[in-house]
Structures are given as C-alpha cells and as structure tokens.
Amino acid sequence: MANRGKGYGPPLGNISEAVGNTPLVKISDRICPAAVVLSSPPSSRASFLSNPLSSVKDRLALAIIETAEKNGTLKPGQTVVEATSGNTGIAVAMMCVTMAEPFSIERRKIMRMLGAKVIVTPKAGKGTGMVEKAVELAEKNGGFSKVFLAQFHYDTTGPEIINDLDGVAKLDYWVTGYGTGGTFHGAGKYIKEKSPDTKIVLAEPQAANLIGSGIATERNADGSPASSHPAFKAHPIQGWTPDFIPLVLEKGLDLKLQDEMVEIPSTAGVEMSQALARKEGILTGISGGSTMWAAVETAKKAPEGSVLVAMLPDTGERYLSTPLFADVKAEMNEEELAIARSTPSWIL
Ligand code: PMP
After folding, report:
1. Where are the membrane-spanning stretches (predicted)?
2. Cβ of 89 below 6 Å from ligand 1
3. Structure confidence at residue 51 (pLDDT)
C-alpha cells in the first residue's frame, strides 16, 4: 500500500518517457527461505508504466534510438532493421524487423500491432540465418539505412540497481542470464565498478553451452572466439544462449566478469516462473523464472542474510502459447475450450 495514491507526477510528453526505473521487489520466503532476494521485474501490474512494452529491452531501445538520432547514424525516414527474438524488436517497434521462427507467436503479433514489418526466417537457418537476413535487408535499403543495435545497459540498468540499493542494502550477488550478453556485460561492468564485492552469477541452460563451452575459452590469437565453436543444442529458454556468436563476444568482451555459473535444468525455469506467478503474483517469462531459479540455488549456498538481485527480463504474457501456460490450458473446462476453439485467435 506504500505507494498508493502517489501517482506518477505530471503527464508524460509521450510514452517513451515512461521507460525505465523499474522497482526492485522483495521475494518472500515461500520462494527463497535462505536469503533476501530482490527481483527487478519489468512489468508486474504495478510497474507496467515503468516499461510500457513490458521487457528489459524498452530502456535499451530508447537509448539506442536516441543516441543514433543524436549522433546522426539514424536519420529521418531511414529503416531500422533488427534481428530479434522478440523483445528488442517489440521495443524498437520500427519499420522492419526480422525474427527466427522458433520464438513465440505473440511476439510477432505485438510487433505487427506496433507497425513493424515482421520477416520470419526459416527455423533451419537458426539465429545465424536471422542475422544474415537482417544484414541483407539493411544493405538493400542502401548505404546508411541500417542501425545495428549495441547495448546500453551500462548507462541504464546498472545504475538503476546500484541507486535503488544505495543506503538500503549491500548487494552480495547479482544474477542474470545471457542472450546477446548486453545485460551481463553492460550492467555487470557497472555493478563491478561501483560495488566490487558483488558476485556476478551467470545462468545458462544446461542443454546449451555457450559460456561453458569452447566458445568462450577457445580463442584465436587476436582474442576473437574460434570459429570451430560447437553447435549449440536446443533449449527452452527463449532469449537465452543464441546459436550465433553474440557481437559482444566477437568484440572480445570480458567473460570473466562472472564469479559463478549456474546451469538451469530443462523445466526448472518454467516451474519457477509458475511459482513466481502463483506465490508472489509476479508474472514473468521463462528466462525470468530461470534467473530466479539460479538466484535461489545461489542463495541456498550463500551466507545467511545475503542480498541477491535477480533480473526478470520480460512479462509472462509474452508466453501464452508456450509450455509456460500448459498447466493453465489443462485446467480450462469444456465450455472455455469451446469458446477458445471458436475464436480464431484464441491462443492470442
Ligand atoms: N530474456 C529474454 C526474454 C530476452 O528477450 C533476452 C534478450 N534476447 C534476454 C533474456 C537476454 O538479455 P541480453 O540479450 O541482454 O543478454
């Protein structure tokens, strides 16, 4: 009730001004008895306006577009092409987006609703095919009509976490996953600079092995990852561990930023997302559940009273058609199922 009636302040000039400043929320001992776990949810109902498109990528997209406009990389009328698993594409919501087939159908619908042109690349080409298509489209649009999106978590997510805890608690562990690596490298670098004792915990799918595998350690003489990297195995955590070498790794950014690694067993992320929804009222996606699972495992081994922050990258509503909602679907009665079947867009 603490914030009831407080309001947001004077009217915002436009919706982009609502991006960022998501609250940290304490997780109860129903999820984690051993330690104080705080999560950084992008869009529980209460903080919906903090990230109007409900993911950690909102502030990123805003910073990218603003910076590109300021430095002249992006000029009026140009097309922005983004290879995306969905959240950055939704956040960018510009003229032209490509995405690989395995990502949820609701992401595509939301991007189209926002006026983006969605180009779905074949499953067989995986993430690499998606990026190649983005390059092709950007080049077709001529010369400078492309903006490849770098990551801005150093300027946004990192400071938000440090500022929120300033004078409140010492941050013992910061737990995150790894997709493009933007959150890990950007926010992680800021957190280490400001709070060197904070341990960074990196979670990755047990089935895949981007970080644990040779990709991180097998380096060419110049420090870039060796091209003979293992093929990454399929895993259920959308947004994590893509089957291409993220740009941040190509640029040789420091993977040693992590102090610990936690491997997430296949269904653990879904189960933890469901527990967060049912026990805490926090509706987050599969990567959010996976990160929380890693945080709870870390907390079990940490000294009592440790403070952990787990990143919850997006809302669970982005997963209505996925196994995250399988239990819910199974609970629907015949009447509900009949309505669902007779509604053409019933999955969404
Ligand atoms: N979770 C979800 C749902 C995502 O879309 C992404 C971004 N692909 C991530 C986690 C990973 O974040 P990052 O790209 O900053 O490593």
Report:
1. none
2. no
3. 75
